[in-house]
Structure formats: C-alpha cells, structure tokens
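Q: I have 115 residues here and want to know how they pack in 3D. Can you give me a structure?
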Amino acid sequence: MASNKASSSIALFLIINVLFFALVSGCGGGSCPRDALKLGVCANVLNGLLNVTLGQPPVTPCCSLLNGLVDLEAAACLCTALKANVLGINLNLPISLSLLLNVCSKKVPHGFQCN
C-alpha cells in the first residue's frame, strides 16, 4: 500500500511539473515554429494591400505558411520576419502585423507586442 501511495505521489508531482513548464513556456512572447525567412513571400501580400492595385493580393503562399498555427505563433512568426526586415519593407510593425494576420484570418493576440 505504501509503494502505491509513493508511486501516486511521484506521478502527481511529475504531472504538475510538466503542466507548470508547459504553461510557463507557452505564456511568453511566443515562438515561431516556422522558418521566418520563408515568410518573405508575405511581402507580396503587404505590397498588394498597401499599394492600391486591382484584384486581390497573392495571399496563398503567405497564409499557407501560417496554416496550422495558433494566433500567437502566427504573430510571433510574422513579428520575427518584420523585425528582421526579411520582407524588405520598412513599415509600422503593429500595423503591418495586424494587416498580415487579418488577411490570413488570424488575429493579433490580446496584449501581444511586436517590439
């Protein structure tokens, strides 16, 4: 009986630790699970949105890179690309980030800042 109780206590302790570390690592600024350099295709989307052109900007290559990501991950990826100027465009970071996320049906997470 004592070994059962000890095993249960150890298992509970490990589960709580795993949950704690998952929550702590997930609450930060977010990290990008994609190669930010590939997000250079999003420059075409921004150019199409900012320059008044006929038709719609080519969103498929950019948005397909963000598919499967939660809003925080997508924001972190685009923020990284924008900060590194991978897109080759100097723009207002919050506005550019918001435009790109909106085009790809994502939202800027509440409190997220791309500094």
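Q: Anything worth noting?
A: The CA atoms of residues 32 and 110 lie 17 Å apart. The helical segments are 2-26, 42-50, 60-66, 71-83, 93-103.
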